[in-house]
Amino acid sequence: MNLDSLIQDYNNQGIATHNRRLDFIQNDVQIPSNLIQKLKDFQIAIPSWALGTGGTRFGRFSGGGEPGTLEEKISDVGLLHRLNKSSGAISLHIPWDIPSDANAIKKLAADHGLAFDAVNSNTFQDQANQALSYKFGSLQHTDRAVRKQAIDHNIEVIKHGVDLGSKSITVWLSDGSCFPGQLNFRRAYERTVESLKEIYAALPSDWKLFLEYKAYEPNFYSTTVGDWGQSYSMVNKLGDKAYTLVDLGHHLPNANIEQIVSLLLMEGKLGGFHFNDSKYGDDDLTAGSMKPYQLFLIFNELVDGMDAKGMNHAKDLGWMIDASHNVKDPLEDLLQSVEAIQIAYAQALLVDRKALEAAREANDVVRCQEILQGVARTDVRALVAQARLELGGVLNPVEFYRSAEIRKQLIQQRGSKTVATGL
Ligand SMILES: [Mn+2]
């Protein structure tokens, strides 16, 4: 039986239960009339490096049926999108995923209903054929020739993106230092800005540059773009097309990410998101698996801040997953991440903002908490499933993926010993 009819059968079996759950929440909660449509419009890009089992610095335990080529990676994202109808974009990492024939790749992606989201450059590793080393940094490097090589790489990544119809580049730098005294902070900062300006100058007029920050790792004493303040000050020096990108795992412990998001949005400099979750550091765990309340609070600020500026939730920021780890089937993990993001978004859309604002003005702290926690404790899964159903997706993607034994089929097609390119 083909996938479409399997999905139809599966949905038919579950529809009565689904309708009962949907009725319950619709009777129980005041739901804005456009909420389902907003959920339907909201697409989350899948990173090409998350389709294989992620490695740690201690080892990597690959699963079977991992995609061995860019074509197979696109096919995997196409499958995710077929199931949840909310993964309609792929974010490529260069040089791990250089398309040999851009037009053919573009067509393949379009056949799966996929667009290309931000392309990602890589100057945190040395490649086999590379002339100069990034051991001591790339855009910050003391040697102009190394900086030039890193700048040229970023410009090449933009060109690949243009060929694919992408509209943004994400720059994440591991540049920094491991020991006190190693680096002149001011010079490293200035060199990085100078290098970024050259990359920015190569940006097409309808493109955005996202500058991602990270507190530490692989450098353990200083990171040159280490927090949102450093990214923000740099993108301000570049121009209107440069924005800060927030990766949830790139903060020091207990950082108030929702406040960072709120202020970056207010300043018009929040460009995009990398979703993941963590307990200790940059753990790259499934979105919403550790701190679902934090994810909701972040979305609460996103919805509030975007509405304040009249922004389009679906289109005006880059929404991407950046997670990759060791023990799950990567496709199941990505389905879980997308679902968690949609749940947090749906809950944020349910917040009674007038009531919240009134409680804030009255300094009614208890009422503020009741409003937010009341929403966070509401089970909105039926609303997310309804949006998926209306788009032709699957009521419960993870359950369906298992019942249809999709991984088994991928192993039959690709073999049990496959390793996807990536971390
Ligand atoms: Mn990231």
TrEMBL record:
> Has the keyword Endoplasmic reticulum been applied to this entry?
no
Which superkingdom does the taxonomy of this entry point to?
A: Bacteria
Instruction: Enumerate the spans annotated as Xylose isomerase-like TIM barrel domain.
Output: 99-284
Signal peptide interval: none
**What InterPro entries does this protein map onto?**
L-rhamnose_isomerase, Xyl_isomerase-like_sf, Xyl_isomerase-like_TIM-brl
Mind listing the UniProt keywords for this protein, alphabetically?
Isomerase, Manganese, Metal-binding
One GO MF term attached to the UniProt entry: isomerase activity
- Its name, as the record gives it, is Sugar isomerase
Q: What is the source species?
A: Sandaracinomonas limnophila
